[in-house]
Design a protein that fits this description.
Blueprint: H1 13-27, H2 32-56, E1 58-59, E2 66-67, H3 68-97, H4 102-106, H5 113-141, H6 153-172, H7 181-194, H8 206-213, H9 216-229, H10 235-261
Helix pairs in contact: 1-5, 2-3, 2-5, 3-5, 3-6, 3-9, 5-6, 5-10, 6-9, 6-10, 9-10
């Protein structure tokens, strides 16, 4: 067995969970950030779901005619899960990697790079679960979710958070400076607008539909919409897509982080 500072430290869930505990301690003092993640989709729902919904009326083509707020609400929750995970593993993690040098101190303990990476992903899942639960409670009060079936939104949000947290973890290993975050927004904003967030897929020409169908947010929206409404696309396809995306992105990201952080 290898010895010395270069010895490989095995990945243990307990060590990864230590990162979650650290983030929980920090967020005790910055909890309004989580409130912002909850209020943002609610504001979009009020502006588009209710405002535009008065002009649009019902949305056909999902197995049953539903109101526009019912159509938009699950998409906004999926988007909130995406944004929360990406923000945690890109913006916050880049600061820890560069400005604060947080991980240099952490890695002087028995923590390994893989434990740190998995811990940050776990924390993104905790944030996603909190946001999804509160959002579900609020929209259920207004009759926009079918309970108890809509409780499947929680595991769906966890899967979405895992996939995008892993993608964010991989993305942060390629960032060269703070200016590169503009490139992330250049990808996420069009995805938010086109991934059936506000319009059904069949309103697009077929070439655009094919493009939309390969977007991870599209499959996220389909998964949450199926849980909310008991209708929509094939949830199994979305689950497989997001699970494979998350596993592959996490595996590549851990390798790149080990090359970056390993002394």
């Amino acid at each position: 067995m290898p010895t010395g500072a270069s010895a490989e430290i095995p990945l243990r869930p307990g060590r990864a969970w230590t990162m979650v505990e650290r983030n929980l301690m920090i967020y005790r003092h910055t909890w309004p950030v989580l409130l912002a993640e909850i209020f943002e989709p609610m504001l979009y729902l009020l502006a588009f779901g209710v405002g535009v919904g008065l002009l649009v009326g019902d949305v056909p083509g999902l197995g049953a005619s539903i109101s526009y707020p019912q159509f938009v609400a699950p998409a906004l929750l999926a988007t909130a899960a995406m944004n929360g995970a990406m923000n945690e593993t890109t913006f916050n993690m880049y600061g820890k990697l560069t400005t604060d040098k947080t991980y240099e101190s952490i890695l002087t303990t028995p923590m390994s790079v893989r434990s740190v990476a998995l811990g940050e992903v776990f924390w993104a899942l905790v944030r996603g679960a909190i946001v999804a639960t509160v959002f579900l409670v609020v929209v259920s009060i207004f009759g926009l979710a079918n309970l108890p079936e809509a409780l499947l939104v929680i595991p769906s949000a966890l899967l979405i958070g895992f996939a995008f947290a892993a993608v964010g973890l991989l993305t942060v290993t390629f960032l060269r400076s703070w200016q590169d975050f503009q490139l992330i927004q250049l990808v996420m904003l069009p995805m938010f607008l086109f991934a059936t967030t506000f319009f059904p897929l069949d309103v697009y020409p077929r070439p655009v539909q094919v493009f939309v169908e390969v977007l991870p947010l599209y499959h996220s929206v389909e998964l949450v919409r199926a849980a909310f409404l008991g209708t929509g696309g094939n949830p199994a396809v979305a689950v497989i897509y997001l699970a494979v995306l998350g596993i592959v992105a996490l595996a590549v990201a851990v390798r790149r982080l080990e090359d970056t952080l390993r002394p």
